[in-house]
From TrEMBL:
Residues 82-99 have a biased composition (Low complexity). It comes from the Bacteria. This is GcrA cell cycle regulator. Residues 66-81 have a biased composition (Basic and acidic residues). It comes from Roseivivax isoporae LMG 25204. Pfam families: GcrA. Residues 42-126 are annotated as: Disordered.
DNA sequence: CCCTGATTCGC
DNA sequence: GCGAATCAGG
């Protein structure tokens, strides 16, 4: 496979959307994530800050090459790159209609089984809920059959309707949900403290 | 172990 | 230019 115009276009699109190199590679087919990453760099869009070039001055003009080639171990010397890479999380809206985001508890729960924990809104941190609502937009919306060992199995919607799917985003290693859903699924004891009953 | 991107360098 | 191998990190 070669980097045709449309393949590059798709690459750019997905990369700017925040898709991972491996996801892009799968989508494109015929290439590995390494190929994707390599291309991304050659295209000069390694900096995912969609907008600006983030002008990065070239401080150190490559120092003298002590020992040239040779099978010697890689030179880890990074001439210079303070770049804190602004990880500005677009948390924004604190109160994102979170409530509607919680997986609806159907009235027809079979014999009460493994449905994921479905805490009530009032006992989850607003941040976590906000995160969930954000993530939901990017959810893969998988069907039961499409879930795998490593996809988020958080259910969304009412199982009794067509509007039901599973998150499907990459799950946290060892956990059944993606980062965002792990956040609302597993809470520290402290938060459910005075919930005596 | 799973995954991520970054870099090098023979091709 | 390409991308496997490798590195570094979560």
């Amino acid at each position: 496979m070669s980097w045709t115009d449309e393949r590059v276009t798709l690459l750019k699109k997905m990369w700017s959307e925040g898709q991972s190199a491996s996801q892009i590679a799968k989508e494109l087919g015929g290439v590995t994530r390494n190929a994707v990453i390599g291309k991304v760099h050659r295209l000069g869009l390694s900096n995912r800050t969609g907008g600006e070039p983030a002008a990065e001055p070239q401080p150190a003009p490559a120092a003298p090459r002590a020992e040239p080639r040779a099978k010697a171990p890689r030179e880890e010397a990074r001439t210079g790159e303070p770049e804190p890479a602004a990880e500005a999380a677009p948390q924004a809206a604190p109160e994102t209609k979170a409530a509607s985001v919680i997986p609806a508890r159907s009235k027809i729960i079979p014999a009460g089984q493994p449905l994921p924990p479905q805490p009530s809104a009032n006992e989850i941190s607003p941040e976590a809920l906000a995160k969930v609502s954000e993530v939901e937009k990017k959810a893969k919306k998988l069907t039961l059959m499409e879930l795998t060992e490593r996809t988020c199995k958080w259910p969304v919607g009412d199982p009794a309707t067509e509007d039901f799917w599973f998150c499907g985003l990459p799950a946290q290693q060892g956990k059944p949900y993606c980062e965002a859903h792990v956040g609302v699924a597993f809470q520290p004891m402290s938060s459910r403290r005075d919930r005596r009953r």
